[in-house]
């Protein structure tokens, strides 16, 4: 900042020099050209060497004066050159020092807004150049409600994190759904120097529910009005953002603008970039009152302490009540009321340059706001059409948005050097656990994966389901990666009940999945499927972590632990609900086994009954699952008995048994040490047996495994000797842990393993 001030002082000094030095010089020369009150000509053409008044001394004096004139003219030429260079470097210099100083005129091509800003007292002075301290915390408030907004806000947060160089404190006014999603997301994201606080949006509904609102944002679109009451009383200032915002610069630049507020200015806003408030968009269009074009509230700078002293709560309520008597409802939610208040009290607003909120709305005039797209700082997708809005630069805007949409969020976990982070118990525990591992251990990567925290976005799509009131409801639980998406529609056709799925995807793949799901009539017609994204990190497929995520987020008392490659028989959902009652699963520790079969055919006429399945089994169209490669995995199901069974029957645990089971939701989790291929289900069934679960085979239930290309992990298992050695080591350690935890009863697992 001091450098800029010095530069402006040099600019002023240079200007004065150019103006005054020549004048002073010529005055001096003019005065010196008189001798005895008579002028002496300095022109060589007028010199008269033979004049009696001409002497050697006067000749020397005149020559020295001519030399001095030439020197002054040369100095002036150099000064003018330096001045022009300084002027040409000025804008670039400002753009290259965003973290220190910010000028209001910077980057805007909107001369009307610029003049309006100057008239409003928004011009900056050298002595008041704003600055953001290196480790100063920037506070950001966002209203976020529902599944879609929770997904949209992530792109906004990514764009802010990408550019930021300061600690951030997000204040999220969220409903119960958004809080559940975002609390898990930020907890697993573990971004240093970022703090999150939640405020219950549902508790605020009564504050604004009396205001009729036609805007698509609904009641949540009015909640920015009550931030002075909602946010902590000791919070002095905050940047308020809509969820459909994308940052193209460091948010610290916007935070610095607070220092430019003067007098009673308490609201920083950008002028609305459409003709909405001018009332000329269509015949009989009657908008709320506004100052000129009005202001857009997608980006707001709030001086909370001053607003509270001004009794903001009373101010906006009285204005809203008065205007609603004639307007009846708001069309643009909180924005209408903000503008009505500003119309009555124009001194409240500090007009931000338009590049702080380039509005891509219907009827937008945002193209008049900037000379070049590189000048932009904040893009606001405030049209219901979002990315489909019309603008001559929309491709640039869309590409910028998509960059952050698909950007790997794990890369944003970077430390802010020189800024101490608040102590995080989870992070400290993780570091302690990792430090206890031996990095020279050949199985280090396997062990490390157990402690890896994967960023998790719950309920990526809309979810709506109320479990059956008879407490018999069952959720199908499974996990998958991108190469199994094609199974989703088929499973939804076979299973009409609720489903909980954990998907292991990158940020870019998550968006591909979103487009796939939104383009599927089958998937979009189902609101009882919970899609939970676990973002990729590390070299292994964390199969048991994925299962645990899917298990943890079910809303029914029972769950069917399946895999994505299996299609359940038609009607299995209702059959399992009846079996839950018949076998008193609520009061007994039972694991109900659904017998598993497989086909090697990609096109299968799915059997509609047990009799039809047995016929296909006899013809060789179907086989018992893994009959050819891993008989032990399902042999204890006793398929020979199942063929003729009409009632449920009990089977005993055997080594390597890994059936697909229905259990209560309180069953133990899967062990995370097993990743990729091998022993991930076996270990879980072993633990169920150790906890004295009774394994009961259902006589009229079945599921069929559909063929697919070998997974990457099974290929690694088959080709990598060290992989197999590490898996064996992990198995032995798991069995030892079982013995320590369950005592004498667990010795049979060691014996069974040795005999197998």
From TrEMBL:
Q: Which SUPFAM superfamilies match?
A: Nucleotide-diphospho-sugar transferases (SSF53448)
Write out the transmembrane intervals: 12-31
> Its annotated pathway?
Protein modification; protein glycosylation
Q: How does it sit in the membrane?
A: Single-pass type II membrane protein
Q: Where in the cell is it found?
A: Golgi apparatus membrane
- Compositional bias ranges of the Polar residues kind: 44-58
Molecular function as annotated in GO? glucuronosyltransferase activity; xylosyltransferase activity
> Would you tell me the Gene Ontology cellular component terms?
Golgi membrane
Q: Which InterPro entries match?
A: Glyco_trans_8, Nucleotide-diphossugar_trans, Xyl/GlcA_transferase
Q: According to its UniProt record, which protein family does this protein belong to? A: In the C-terminal section; belongs to the glycosyltransferase 49 family.
**Protein name, please?**
LARG1 glucuronyltransferase
- Organism of origin: Erythrocercus mccallii
Taxonomic lineage? Eukaryota, Metazoa, Chordata, Craniata, Vertebrata
Which gene underlies this protein?
A: Large1
